[in-house]
Amino acid sequence: MYVSMIIWVLSGIRQFPTKYRYFFISIAISDPLNKMLIGLEIYTGNYVFLITSLLGFYSTLKFDPYGKDKILYFVLPVVMIITFFITGTTELAFVLIHLFIFYKVFKIATLDLFENKHFSIFKYLLVFYEITVILNVTLRYLEATQFYFLFFVMFAFQVFIGLFYVIFREDKSKLTIDIKMLQEGH
Asked: N or C: which end of the chain has fewer CB within 10 A?
């Protein structure tokens, strides 16, 4: 767990010069802040994860060139609060936030692919990361002990994805495959 925290803090530092800075900072501060507050016996919940995930979602405003669905930025907090009060659990609200993040990142990556003919490894790895987050929290919420192994496999993927973001930044052209050039045979 601590290795994962260190890797994601380093990825937040590495991505700071990019347009994804706030998204990675929200990931970087979530675990350390949560551990610190629990260690200081200030609280014992998962509210830090909700707040940092919500900040991560709002950070997509910074890197969404296709931002025609800004209504989501107003709808999400309302849906999150209603979900929390109906279910009494933070996990479902957390999953909802990450479903919205998944939607935004997938939309950005896919529109970039089809409109600009660019396949961004950086963006699609972020999509995969969001899938692992959603699955991990869902499995924990459902207490699906038969999938315990899957939880650790996804956690390992998250660590490797974090390492990728420590090494590579979004502004490196090596992480984007130009589909137009491939189609033209160059």
From this structure: C
- In one letter, which amino acid is 152? F
Residue in 168, 150, 144 with CA at minimum distance from that of residue 10: 168
Instruction: State the sign of the Cα–Cα–Cα–Cα dihedral 29, 30, 31, 33.
Output: positive
Q: Whole-prediction pTM value?
A: 0.87
Asked if 107 and 132 touch (Cβ cutoff 8 Å), the reply is no
The 8-class DSSP code of residue 147 comes to: G
Residue 73 and residue 61 in contact, taking contact as beta carbons nearer than 8 Å: yes
Residue 176: predicted pLDDT: 82
Cβ neighbors of 23 (< 8 A, separation 6 or more) are 15, 56, 59, 60, 62, 63
Tell me, what's the pLDDT at 50?
A: 84
The answer to whether 46 and 69 are in contact (CB under 8 A) is: no
Tokens coding 18: 């990019």
**Distance (Å, whole) CA 165 – CA 40:** 30
| Residue 61 · residue 74 · CB < 8 Å | no
* Distance, CA of 186 to CA of 180 (rounded, Å): 9
| C-alpha span between 13 and 157 (Å, rounded) | 20
Question: Alpha-carbon distance 135 to 45, whole Å?
Answer: 20
